[in-house]
């Protein structure tokens, strides 16, 4: 203890510590701060739910000190993904702000395989759309008052069981979609009245719907709401009805027709020889 009471010894120790900090610790710290790394940066404003393209991002070299571990460093890992939040110019892109699939309210549009189409019909009044109670996945019947100007109200055979894939408010957001997260636009606008209902239909069904939409007279009645497996049974039954109403035209084989002229020519040749 008497050693540390000596001011000279204490002074020497302080000088040595300061030299160690100046020439040992500080250079290492500066080296780590000045170390550069590449990250992906936003160069064009990106809205939530939007697909990211090459023109929206670029790689930039920045100091690596203090960067989050989940910051993305290669543009290939960003392009083609969907933003889950708004991104401004200059923002770093974190993997938590990206999704491999589009936003929930648009997912159904990416599941179309060409056999069926998504078609929206306008809800003319509050009652026409089941008072705003319809949800995606519901099975509905389309009721046509004064169908084809015949004075009778019917459910067209093509539209007895139709699946609802979206209910959209006037703002453009899906107003009442199942499994919407608490932060989704549809959740924020769930009190808005629906303006349109999007249905999953075949090309034949879409033509009938277009006529009803043009006449401005249609009502939707709820048939079933439940598990996807049971909903599929209704759609399967409807597909059979549509197939029976619109049978596929048989493909005609043109090969036999092309052979007929050759046969007739061959039969005419002996006849000409007999005349001679």
Architecture overview:
The longest helix has 28 residues, at 7-34. 32% of the residues lie in helices and 18% in strands. Among the domains are: 34-97, Type Iii Antifreeze Protein Isoform Hplc 12 (Alpha-Beta Complex), CATH 3.90.1210.10; 105-177 and 191-243, no CATH class. A 5-stranded antiparallel sheet has the order 5-8-7-6-9. A two-stranded antiparallel sheet has the order 1-2. A two-stranded antiparallel ribbon has the order 3-4. 20% of the residues are buried. By secondary structure, the protein is an alpha+beta fold. The protein has 6 helices and 9 strands; from the N terminus they run H-H-E-E-E-E-E-E-E-H-E-H-E-H-H. It has helices at 2-5, 7-34, 185-188, 203-215, 228-245, 255-275; strands at 36-42, 57-63, 82-83, 98-99, 117-122, 139-143, 162-169, 194-201, 219-224. It is elongated and about 115 Å long. Residues 177-190 and 261-276 have low confidence and may be disordered.
Number of contiguous helices: 6
Strand count, sense and closure of the main sheet?
Answer: 5 strands, antiparallel
Number of strands: 9
Q: From N to C, what is the helix and strand string?
A: HHEEEEEEEHEHEHH
Arrangement of strands in the largest sheet: 5-8-7-6-9
Multimeric organization: single chain
